[in-house]
């Protein structure tokens, strides 16, 4: 997504993706909990009102999925947004989503 920068920070048990969009205040976020080295839970996605409708939540979800694939992880989509995205793309995400 043009003009959107996504950062990832983590601890031993949690992770957080933060998306900033040039020219807009605030940031979108997607948080995860680490169950094991190969299993993570997508907990929560939030985007400020000023950034809604710009594809920020989708960019966060796609980054999470891309990173999980690269790291050999599976995602439990507890977050309603990630769950809806995974349901919509169920076949193409079958390798990374843990239902």
UniProtKB/TrEMBL annotation:
Pfam families: Acetyltransf_CG. Gene3D superfamilies: 3.40.630.30. Coiled coil: none annotated. It comes from the Bacteria. Residues 9-98 form the N-acetyltransferase domain. This is N-acetyltransferase domain-containing protein. It comes from Palleronia marisminoris. The lineage of its organism: Bacteria, Pseudomonadati, Pseudomonadota, Alphaproteobacteria, Rhodobacterales.
């Amino acid at each position: 997504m043009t003009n959107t920068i996504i950062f990832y920070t983590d601890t031993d048990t949690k992770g957080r993706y933060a998306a900033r969009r040039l020219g807009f205040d605030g940031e979108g976020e997607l948080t995860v909990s680490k169950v094991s080295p190969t299993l993570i839970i997508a907990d929560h996605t939030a985007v400020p009102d000023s950034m809604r409708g710009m594809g920020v939540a989708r960019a966060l979800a796609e980054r999470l999925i891309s990173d999980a694939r690269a790291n050999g992880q599976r995602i439990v989509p507890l977050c309603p947004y990630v769950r809806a995205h995974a349901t919509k793309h169920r076949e193409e995400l079958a390798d990374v989503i843990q239902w």
